[in-house]
Amino acid sequence: MDAVVYKGPHEVAVEEVDEPEIEHPNDVIIDITTSCICGSDLHMYEGRTAAEPGIVFGHENMGIVTEVGDAVSDLEEGDRVVAPFNVACGFCENCEDGYTGFCTNVNPGFAGGAYGYVAMGPYTGGQAEQLRIPYADFNALKLPEGDEHEDAFALLADIFPTGWHGTELANLEAGDSVAIYGAGPVGLMAAYSAKIKGAAEIYSIDRVPSRLDLAEQHCDATPINFEEADPVEQIKDEHGGGVDKGVDAVGYQAIDPEKEADEAYDPARENPAVVLNNLIRTVKPTGELGIPGLYVPEDPGAPDEIAAQGRLGIDFGLLFEKGQKLGTGQCNVKSYNRELRDLIIEGRADPSWVVSHRVSLEEAPEMYQKFDNREEGVTKVLLEP
Ligand code: NAD
Ligand code: ZN
Q1: What is the ipTM of this complex?
Q2: Within this chain, do residues 48 and 172 fall inside the same structural domain, yes or no?
Q3: pLDDT tens digits, residue range 73-95?
Q4: Is the CB of 274 under 6 A from ligand 1?
Q5: Which residues have a Cβ under 8 Å from the Cβ of 17 and sit 6 or more positions away?
Q6: In this structure, which ligand is nearest to the CA of 43?
Q7: Are 17 and 128 a contacting pair, CB within 8 Å?
Q8: SS3 (DSSP) at 29
Q9: For the chain, how many structural domains are there in total?
Q10: Domain named Enoyl reductase (ER): which ranges (predicted)?
C-alpha cells in the first residue's frame, strides 16, 4: 500500500510499504478515509528529533473497519471510527485514571504511545491506505455511518480534544479572560473551546494573518500579531492587570539558521522559551497556564543540538512571584473525544472551519512543505488516500 514515509530533514515521500496485519486478537485494521498532518509531525519533519528515516507518519486517523481480531467485541466490519492519537491499553493505572496519554503498557519505559511518532512505540502511522489499531475496543471511537462531518470528526483524533485540553489544563471557566499563544490548528481549537465554554475575552497571538483572521471570525478572539509589537504589552493595553488564564499552543519552535543571517530576523522572538515567558508575563498573579505545546526533554545521549532543546530559559522566579499554576503534557484524547463527537453530531460545535485543505496522499510532500512554512491560507491539511 502507499504511505507517507519520512526520508530525512524536510523530506517525505509517498512510497510502497507493507500492509498492516492483525498482530493480536485485540486489533482491528481500518481503511483510512482521512489522516491529518499535524504541527507535531513538524518536529520530526524538521529533523529536530531522533526520528529515523523510514517512519510512516500519521497519528490523526479515521476510517472504516475492514478486519476484526477474535477478541474484539464491540466493533465490526464496516464500522466508521476515529482513533485517538494516543495508543492506550485502557486498564493500566494511568488509563484507569483517565491519563491515556501516559499508558504504561503500550510503550514500556516511556510515557505513552502514539501512531507514527518517534519514541512513542512500534505503532505505524496512518498517512497510508490502512492502519492497525491495537486495543481496538478501547481506542476506536464509533461514528455515525456515512460520510457526514468527515472533516470535523477527523479532528477528534487530536486537535479538537487537544485544544480543549489546553483550556482544561488552565482550568478555564465561563467568564474568564484568556490569552492563547499560537493560532495554528491547536491554538485555534483552544480558542474555539474557550468560546464554547463561555470565556468573556479571548486573545489569539500569532504572526500568520490568515490564522489570526480565523481566530477572530470563528472564535470571537481579539487577534494579536506578535511581529507588530510585544504581544504582552498589546494585551495589557486592552486588558490591564493580566488575563485570568493562558494557553501555550506553540511549543518548541526552531531558530532558523538560514534566516539568522538576515538582519530583520530576531532570533530572540524564536527562542524556545519566549512563549512560556510571555505566557507567565501575560497572565495575572494566581492565574493558571495550560501548556499543550510540545517540548522535548533534555537528552544527554542525543546529539548536542537535540539534547539542548530540553534546556529552556524559563523565568521560574516570575512564575513563583506570581503564584501561578500550570498544567502540561500530551492530551488524553479519550477523556474528551466522546463528548466532543456528540457536540458535533448535535450541531452544537463544528470545528471543520479550521480545515484548509483536503488532498490526496500523493500531494503530501508538497503540503508538508507549505504547512511547515506556515504559508498564508494553509491551516489544517487532511490527507485522503
Ligand atoms: P503549528 O506548529 O503550525 O502551530 C504553531 C503556531 O504558533 C504557528 O501558527 C506559529 O506561527 C505560531 N508561533 C510561532 N512562534 C510564536 C510566538 N513566539 N508567539 C505566538 N505564536 C507563535 O501547528 P499546531 O498543529 O497548532 O501545533 C502546535 C503545537 O501543539 C506543536 O508544538 C505541537 O507539537 C503541539 N501539539 C501537542 C499535542 C499534545 O497532545 N499536547 C497535540 C497536538 C499538537
Ligand atoms: Zn497531531
Answers
A1: 0.99
A2: no
A3: 999 999 999 999 999 999 999 99
A4: yes
A5: 1, 2, 3, 5, 56, 124, 128
A6: 1
A7: yes
A8: strand
A9: 2
A10: 8-383
